[in-house]
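Duplicate of earlier report; Ferritin-like domain-containing protein input re-posted below.
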Amino acid sequence: MTDSASMMGALDARVSRREGRREFFRSALGGAAVAAAGVATLGVVSAAQAQSVTPVTDADILNFALNLEYLEAQFYSYAANDTGLPAALLTGTGAVGTVTPGRRAGFTDPVVAQYAREIAADEAAHVQFLRTTLGSSAIAMPSIDLGVSKDSAFSRAAQAAGLVPAGTAFDPYATDESFLLAAFIFEDVGVTAYKGASPLLSSNAYVDAAAGILAAEAFHAGLIRNALYQKGLATPSLRTSTDAIAKARDTLDGAQLLEQGVSNQTRTITNADATTTSVEYANLVPTDGNAITFSRSAGQVLGIVYLNATAGTTAGGFFPAGVNGTIKASAA
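Output:
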C-alpha cells in the first residue's frame, strides 16, 4: 500500500503468531524493549534485563487503540455526516492534530448509507468511551489524512493495491463501492489489532472493555465484507479488489500471509461413499484452519496505517505526523 521499495519488509510466512504478540511489546517503545510486566509470562528477556526497561501499561495499550478509533471515527463521520468529530472529543495529552478532511459519501444504496451511519455512531462512542476510561491519561487526536488527492493516504493505498494506476487519485467518498473498499482497509485491521492487544491487558475491567470493542469491530468488519461480497456478485472486480487490498496489507505488517479478501474459497469434502467433492464457499470471515481470526501486534498495525513496511517507522500514511502516546513505531 505504498511504493515497491517500502513494501519489501514482509517476513517469512512461517513466523508464528506468538512471536507477533511478543512483538507488540518490542515495538511498544520503538522496538527497543519488552515490557517488564510481560516478561515472566513471555520469557523473552532475563529478569535483569526486565529491570532496566520501561513497562508498557494498560493505559499505553488503550491509548494506542484510541489512535485507531480517532482514525475510524473521523472517516465514518465525514462519510456519513459530512463533518468530523466535535472538538470536545479531540483534546488530551499532547497537541491536537489536524484532519485532512473527507466529505459525505455519494451513497445511492440506502443499505450502505445506513451501515455508514451506524458505524459512525459506534466509532464516535468508542472514542468517547476510551477517553472517559483513560481520564487525564487520554491522548489528543493526532493528525489524520482522509483526503482525496493523488498523494493522499487513501490514494497511495489504492495505488499500491492496484485499484487505480500510479499517480492517480482514489476518492473513497465517490460511490458506495469506493466507500466500502476504503472501509475494508480499516476494519479488518481494527479487529486483528484488538485481538492482539486484549490478552496483554492486566486489568480485568480493561480486558472486558477491549473484548467488547473487539466484538463491535468484528460486526462492523462483517457488515463491510458482506456488502462487498453481495455487490461482487454483480461486479466481480469488487471481490478481486478486496483480495488486492488484503495482499497489500500483508506486505506491510510483517506477519504470516494470512490476509484474505472476500473472493470465494474452495474446500474438498468427503462424501458418504468416500469420494471427494470440491465445493465453493463464501469467505466473509478471514480465519485460519481452525476458524480463528488472527492477531496483529502494535508494530504490525502501524506498518499498515503508516503505509510503510520499514521497521521503526514513526509517521506517514493515515497518520502524517505519527500516532500519539507511548507506542509509536512500526515493526517489520
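The chain has one domain: 4-260+296-305.

Merging into the original ticket.
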